[in-house]
Each structure stands twice: as C-alpha cells, then as structure tokens.
Batch of 2 targets.
Target 1
Amino acid sequence: MTEPAALKSPKWVTMQDVARMAGVSTITVSRALRMPDKVKAPTRERIDAAIRALGYVPDQIAGSLSSRESRLVAALVSTMAGSIFASTVDGLAQALREQGHQLLLGTTEYSSESEEQLIATALSRRPDGLVLTSGEHTPAARQMLAHAAVPVVEVWDLPEQPIDMAVGFSNHEAGRAMTRFLFDTGRRRIGFVGAMQEGDRRGRLRLMGYEAALGELGLGAPRSVADAGIASMVERGARNFVELMQRWPDTDAIFCASDSVALGAVSEARRRGFAVPEQLAIAGLGDFDFAGEHGLALTTVRIPGYAIGAEAGRMIIRRKQGDQDTPKSVDVGFEIVRRGSA
Amino acid sequence: MTEPAALKSPKWVTMQDVARMAGVSTITVSRALRMPDKVKAPTRERIDAAIRALGYVPDQIAGSLSSRESRLVAALVSTMAGSIFASTVDGLAQALREQGHQLLLGTTEYSSESEEQLIATALSRRPDGLVLTSGEHTPAARQMLAHAAVPVVEVWDLPEQPIDMAVGFSNHEAGRAMTRFLFDTGRRRIGFVGAMQEGDRRGRLRLMGYEAALGELGLGAPRSVADAGIASMVERGARNFVELMQRWPDTDAIFCASDSVALGAVSEARRRGFAVPEQLAIAGLGDFDFAGEHGLALTTVRIPGYAIGAEAGRMIIRRKQGDQDTPKSVDVGFEIVRRGSA
DNA sequence: TTGAAAGCGTTACCAG
DNA sequence: CTGGTAACGCTTTCAA
C-alpha cells in the first residue's frame, strides 16, 4: 500500500516526451534512433540529450505493431537440461543479437500442450522466424507454419521433407561412421544403447546407421537395447548397458545414442569392473561439455552445436532480408573424435 | 519467385476477419477468447468456428500494446553451456507457461555490450519481469531497473542488497558446509579450486565460506588456486588441480567451485594415479546432470536449480497480480549429497 | 531535413 | 450480453 501510484502508473517515458523536450516531432526522434544519418547533427544531439535526461527506452511493442516486424525469433526445444541444445541456443542467441534480434525460448518436455498449441503461442508473437528441434511434426502443425509464412529452421537433423530450411547433419551417417570407426579399431561385437522407441527420430536414425554398418561389415545381428520409461539419459545409459551385457556378454564395443547415455554406460561399466577401453570400448555422440579431454575424455561424434544455432539464426535473418537463395538445407557435418574411451 | 505475393503480403488473419465471419464485433471476439463465460454460448460457437475456419492466431503484439502487459518475462544468463542454468531456465519456462507467459532469453557471455545495454534491450519489450543471474550490477543498471518499475528476481544467490527480489541460497554457507563435511569425513588438508578472480561473486563467496570453515576448524592457511584465462570450467578444474597439488602435495581433499570444475579435477586426478576418494577426496557444487549416481557419482552440494527457476517465475507472476506480500528473498537452501568422490 | 496524419490489431471504457 | 469509440506508442506515407 506504500506506492499504489507506482503500481498503477509505471509510466514509461514515451517518444512523445523526448520529442517535446528536444523540440521536435516524434517522427524525428524515431529517425534519430534508427537512421541517425537522416537527421541533422545538432538536432540529433538535442534528441540524444533528451533521451539520456529522461532515461527513455523505446517501446518495441509499439514499434513492432507499427513496422510489422518483431525482431524476435522463437525457438522450441524439448529441454535445456541434458546438454544437448545448450550450445545451440547459445549460438542462436549470439547470432540473433548481432543482428539486433532477440530470442523467445519455449520448452516442450514438461508441457501437456500439443506442439500445435506451442507453435500457435509462439506465432502469436509474430516472430520473424522459428527454430524447431523436434524433428517430427503433425500435418496440422505443418499447415499452420505454412499458413503463417514464417521462416522455419529445423535443427540437429536433415529431414527429407523439411518444412522450410534445415541445419544439421545426417544422424544416420553419424551412426554408421562411428560403428565403422569402432570396427576399424578392431572391435567386432558392437552393441548400441540408448535410443528410445518413439518420438526420437534422431536416435532412431543413429540406430539405423549402426545397423546399416553392421550389415555392411558382416558383423551379424544388431545388439541393441532401448526402453521407454527412464527419466535421465545418464540413467538410461547405465541401465541399458547392464541389460545389453547380460544378453550379449561377449560384446567388445558399445556405441551410445548420445554422450549422456555414454556417461551412464562408462560409469556403470567401470563400476562393474570392465576395463574401458581395453576390454570394452564405449563411444558417444555430441561432444558435450563433460566429454572433453579434460573431463570424461569420451570418444565421440562431435556435433557443432553452437554452429548449428548460429547458422540457423543467420539463415532466418538472411531470409527475412529478402535473400532469394538462402540454402534450404545446411549440412554442418560431424567428426569422430578419438579420446580415451574407445 | 514462385510466390512473391506470399512474401509481400504474409497477411495474417485479423480479429476483424473473424468478427466479420461470425457476424459480431471485434470486441466480442476478444471476449470470447479471453473470457468465454461473458459471451453467450451460441455466439461463442460461431466465433470458434470462424477462428478455426480462418486459422486465426491472435496478435499478441497488438494485444500487449493495448492492454499494457506483454506476458513476457526476460531472463539474462551468461551462457547456457556449462550446465549451470539449464535446469533453472527449464523451471522458469515451465512456471511461466503454466501462467500463460513466455520467456525471452538473453545471453551475455559472448557479448561486447554492457549489462546496461542488454537490460535496456530486454526492457524495450516491456517484459512483465526480469530474471537476472549475474550477481553484480552497475549503479546505472540498478537505476535503470528501478526507473522501469519492473519486478526483478536475482537468482542463484542471495545478495545483501537485492535489486528487488531474490531466489537462491547462501553461497558462503554452502562453501562452509562442504568444507566442514570434508572435515567430518576425516580430511584435514583441504584445498579449494576454481574460483575466478573477478566477475564471479558466487565463486568468491564459496571460497570465502571455505576459508571461514578452515579458520573455525583450525585447519591452517587456505590452499586455493584461481586463475582468469581459461575457457571451460572443466579445463580450469584440471589445470588448477595440477597447480594445487604442486604447491601443496599433501592435500587430502579438494572442494571445487562447481561440478564442472570438479569433473576436471577428478579426471585429472585419476589420470595422474590418485585414488579418489581414498587418497584424495574431491567434491563439487551444483549436482549437475553428469554428477549423479549413474554418472560421475560426485559428492556435491545439491542446488535445486529447477526450483529456483520455477520459484522466480511464480514470484514475478504473483507480484504482477498485485500480491502485496510477495517475499523479497527466498532461500531454497542446499544439501550435501555424498556419493563416490568424497 | 522535418512534420502531419493515418494507421498497425488489439483491449479499455462506457453505453445500451 | 454486445458494441462504439478511443486509445496504446510507434512507423509509414506523403507533403512541405
């Protein structure tokens, strides 16, 4: 009850106020802010002085409504936990800021709403672009996005039928490449751990790449364990590892769907007395923070997550600026990084 | 060149269009959307039908300008990489969505702009609240925030002079508690690793807590190593570990400023043949993803990061709704979790 | 180089 | 329960 006035009228300084103080019209203030060259120096200086004196902060909401551009890009990710999208979001935020745009972040995992709902909520901000990490979309969602005519970038995968644009790599090839790498280091009884049954397109693709390599190399039937009901990837890695070794005790190498899964597998393996990598090679995918040489020293498939985010941001901006030949699909590739675990 | 029209006029369906189709005025559509009870059922149904038929998505920009509420909360974090704020952002996003709000995320680390600039940019969206992770603020920044009269929540710390509200824990107490815990498990020559010289208030506080405990327990002079120029926390942990053991070879326990630092220290220690925890106990802080029992099994100070984010979101909403007695400061506490490393 | 007027799409405020 | 009218704070467009 001490400051009802402040609550009732958190009155922002408006462009009008600045204009009055500087003795010009609002449009001139607007110009001084956005195209300083088009305003005579003395005028501009008076305006700048007024802005500082009043502590004026432009109202982007009004600006956006008027100019019909929000300078906002929305990104929808499952979770930030688990390291997967952390650097991608960093890269995206960075690229956007460099271009004077901001990031609207939505997380989907703990949400009961459908993807359509989430997309609709994002679209209600009239973003200049949308970054999607999910990989699979309902026809309704696709239609909604087409209808909105907003640049869309799908990341961390290269869908055959991208909604609009995509920045990522071939998860299938990555799975195949690591399997072949393990083969090249002498392993012959290679298992796979950590893909989920459903809603995990990327994991499934990695698994399929692994299976393809197995076939090409004549390594026999796949040894893979998947499951649904486990919360964390690390725990999944630990549990699936145990199951895999029970079913195929002579396994000499395990490729994990991600570094988080690999962390669980490596930890459980060491706990159970397996010598990693001598007795059992374990490899991951992602090259997450903790996998580096100063940390777990995990042999992994490095994915340039930061670059994915940055490129996605740039593509949206370019498209927005009317660039006709923005690439539809950018393959950032991957790289096998051999460290201590395989 | 196939659809220049679509590019030139990504014409959004407006409330006007819906109103026309349903044979009502726009304000009735608006009401049907926001207060369905205040609209007669048949009318509402016609409106809903029109909305679906036209694929209408409300324009929050216009709505915000008119209602003077953005339903947007801005969060400024240093980076998403490094696991620290991942679950806090998840918690925040989740709490906000439950209340019909969205998250505007800004990262500061790779930015050359000052905090003032970043805050100003955020404020230009007229957010309903601001979540700050930095810990230290220039007088200009504080003034700007005061001027804006926007709810502000500082997280992961409990400043003595919060700008407005705070959700966190005592970093000093946490440092003290872990040091005492190490003492209780029999360690007497305890080192500290991983605080930066500057711009790292929380790390400094943990170090001070460690030093305080040392004094109280009569454990002699601090053994701490800090440095500035290392990129990743994991690498810092590895490097500082080496330096610490060179200067004080008889050290029998190390408390690390964060789990990332601890990961580096543990890894380097094992690489150099130290038996962890028998010969050398190593503890971290944070209870990050990778530190769990299925992973590194790191003894650590668990910080409820998700809860911090969720509570911050709720506080902003409550404040916005005019709750007079929103707590100024919420201590979420911490908890020592003993696992394999100490 | 500057300005006046007309929106942008929605919601607040009053009427009916 | 429904609607008319006037904002909201800025940018666009057209003139001067």
Target 2
Amino acid sequence: MIKTNTKSDIFQTIKDLDLFKGCEDSFFQNLTNQSQFLPLKKNQILFLHEESATRFFIIKRGWIKLFRETFDGTQAVIDILTTGHIFGETAIFDKDIYPYSAEAAEPAEVISLPLSVLKSELETNSKLALKMLSEMAQHRKIQDKELEHRTIQNASQRIGCFLLRLTNQEASGNVTIHLPYDKTLVASRLGMQPETFSRALKKLKAETGIEIKGATIFLESLSQLSNYSCAACSSEFPCRDLKSGTAG
Amino acid sequence: MIKTNTKSDIFQTIKDLDLFKGCEDSFFQNLTNQSQFLPLKKNQILFLHEESATRFFIIKRGWIKLFRETFDGTQAVIDILTTGHIFGETAIFDKDIYPYSAEAAEPAEVISLPLSVLKSELETNSKLALKMLSEMAQHRKIQDKELEHRTIQNASQRIGCFLLRLTNQEASGNVTIHLPYDKTLVASRLGMQPETFSRALKKLKAETGIEIKGATIFLESLSQLSNYSCAACSSEFPCRDLKSGTAG
DNA sequence: AACCTGCCTTGACATTGGTCAATTTAGCTA
DNA sequence: TAGCTAAATTGACCAATGTCAAGGCAGGTT
C-alpha cells in the first residue's frame, strides 16, 4: 500500500511535472524539504486574493476553484483545476501577492511548496524559464479563446464546448461524459447562473439529441456536439489547445 | 527634422523598449538589420490567424486591432494596442503560428522584426526570458480581469471602466478624455454592439453626470466614474495594473 | 454649397439570460 | 425507511442586450 503523503511521494510528484522536466534533483529536493501535504475539505479556502504569498501549489487530487470577488460578494470564477496543475505560482511576478483566491471545489489534496525556491531556480535555470514562458503563452491563448467564447457563443454552445473539452477529441463513435463537479460550479465556470445552465443544457439536448442522465451525458458521436458548438468558435473542431483545467 | 523610418530610428525605438532593457547592442543591431518599417492604412491587414509566422511587430504610431473570427465572419476583438506595444511575438511558443489576426484600426506605423532573432536571444539571455515571463504573467492577470468584467459588469460599467483606464488615475479634479478610436471599435473591444454602446454611454451619463461631446468626455472628478464602475470589480479603484492597450 | 460616405444614434421589437420563489430530486445520515 | 440537506429543476417574470431598419450628423470632396 502506497502512502500518498510521504516526502518521497512528493518528490516523485514534482519530478514528474512537465513544467519541471530537465531540472536537477537538488531542486526537487529543496522543494520537497519545505513541502507540505494538505488535505482539503470541500469549500475549504486555501488563500485569498491580494494576500501576501510565500507558497505555490500542485494539485494531487480533486478540484480547485480559482476565483475573485467584489466587495458585495459577487463572484467570478477564473478557472477550475485538477490533478497535475499548478497554481499560485504567478505571485512571483506580482510583488508576491496572489492574483486570485483559491478554494477546494471538491475534497482535494494539494502539495504546498515555497515560492522562494522556485524563484531562485528560475533565475539560474533558463530552461525552466523558457518552459514556463511557453506554458504561459499557451495559457494566454486559452484565455483569449475563453473571452471569445463569452462574446460569440450562447449558453448552450458554451456547455457543448465545455463537454467536448472533457473528451478525447480523437474518439469516434459513442462517448460517455461525466461532469467532474457540481452543475452549479460548471455554470459559474462558464459564466452563467445555475438556472440558465439547467435550461441551456435542456436546449442543447433538444438541438443535438444528446442523452442526459444526472451528471452523465451520452453522445452518439462527437460531431453531434461539435457541429453545434464549434460553429461559433474561431477554431476548427479538434481543438487540441483547449483542454480544460489547463490554467495555473 | 527627424525621419522616423530610418534604421537608426528603429534601433533606438527597440532599445527603448522596457521588455528589452538590459539587452546588448548586438541584439538590437541584429534586429534592426532585418527590420522593416511599415506604414499601414486604416483597416489594412497585417497578418491572419493561423498563418505561419516569421516576424513580430512593434507599434510606432496608431492603433492595431487583434482579433479572431469564426467561419461565418463573426468577429471577436482580443485587444487594441498602441505605441510601444509588441504583438505577434507569442507565435514563438506556438509552432510559429499567429494566434490571432492583426489589422490597423487607424492609420498606423509598425516595425516588423524577425522572430528568429528574438527566439535565439531568448535561449541565451535569461534576463530577457525572465522579463518576458514577468510581462506575460502581468498580461495574464489583465486577461483574468477582462473576463471577470464581462461576467459581472454591465455595458455602462464596462464603458466607465474603459474610460478610467485611459486616464492618469492619480489625477484630481477635472479630467478630459478623448476616445482613441471609433466608438464602433470601442464597442467591439468591450464585447458589445455599437447600438448597445451608444445607449449604454447615454445611461452612463445619466447615472454619473459626465459630459459627452462627440468623442470627448468631461469629468468633474474620477470618482464620478469609479464609484459607478468599480463597484462591480474585484479591484480597488486606482487599478494600476489595468492600463489599457497593455497586451502583446 | 451640394453631396457623399461612414459613423453614430434612435426606435421598435426579439431574444437571451438573470432573478425570485416554489418544488423536486438525490445523496446522506440517523 | 424516514428525514435532512444541498443541488437541480421549473415557472413566472423582468432586465439587459442584440437585431433590424430608418434617420441624422460630420468630415471630406468636388
């Protein structure tokens, strides 16, 4: 039986990250030495927007919601991330202030690591800097597309697009999709109210003939959705660059 | 009389860029040697989304619109940039493919530079990589906020926010703002129809008491607008990080 | 001055999505 | 199983924005 919260497991998890590919073991060791394993209950807050930052995080399991809110409590969801994704690291470039709040959308486990170690590694390891730069540029493109979608896709199309991004887009034939978290949360991720989500999903079903049973959706083929959703997008269908949960 | 399209002027323009601060003259010289000065007429297209990229650009004068469009011609404006801003450079990180289209929103002058030189400089100059990484992270935060605004601000509030970002936010007392380009374009920049823009501006006037004369807007004070617009934003008013035209 | 042309505004109306309140459903726990 | 709670759905209504069509205005040209 493997324990998932040992230091050696943390070491291995960090080492396996694509972002850190090619880094020295000493770097991983430094990070690991100052690491913490954090189990999070649903809705548990990890840090708040504008808070001073000393640590960044890697998701081991579950879903983390990044968001910001206005004074009156209105909330805007920035992204919802899962296993293998990093967040909080951009504070390095912004006066060590977190640019968003983070909370567990579902029970989750994250690894907490010191920003200082990452920061000094970045200054000496140009491979890492370039890799991070590349991921950042990728993310930027995704953000641009997100904004585009808010502008030109309606609620049903956005849901269809979201579902497609949960699948292997090369698949042919029947596909079963399971929503990864609450519908309410999917709604906020897509910038709409839960009621709108509910009705828009129903409309999506009527327009495309998909089957819905609770949080599970059955497709006869991906084109059933892509014909409907991708018409209102600037990219061709298999949209390789738009995997969901890809932010940091 | 200074000519603005000489090689030596290009050299100086590049050297003055914040992004390139600290780079060697040899780098500037390499860029300059392969540079081109391009005067652009209004609506002239510079490159198209998905096109193969060999050059990036720096704006010398005027306004450049970055956008993408769907098959049926619906257009989503990503950003509108002006003097001193760089664009097209992120193609380096995306298989040398432009992630958006670019055209002159107003008569403009841009300097065209080879991506190859930038690319190899990035690989050897870690200061530059870090600086670019930092700017990218900054941009990312701006994009997040842009998305937030689309979600929680209404049309009038977005216009107010846009106007505030055109000003020196430390100013006290009277302020005169001049719209930098067509209202139609401002509308698309803010993700709304021209008709909606027109009505929303009227509403903004009614709600805040600003004065409007054509493309010129008079404020008695910035708080007149900030009270109205920034209520629906997660940031406090003087929002230093949200300068307009800040993308690349 | 007359006339274009493109931008902007306005009105009338359609559509989309948001809000509020009432139920229904599903998953837990006792 | 009964009962609790949170999530999801539904209906009725409203507000915001988009669409289409008609004018109006301003700047540039002849």
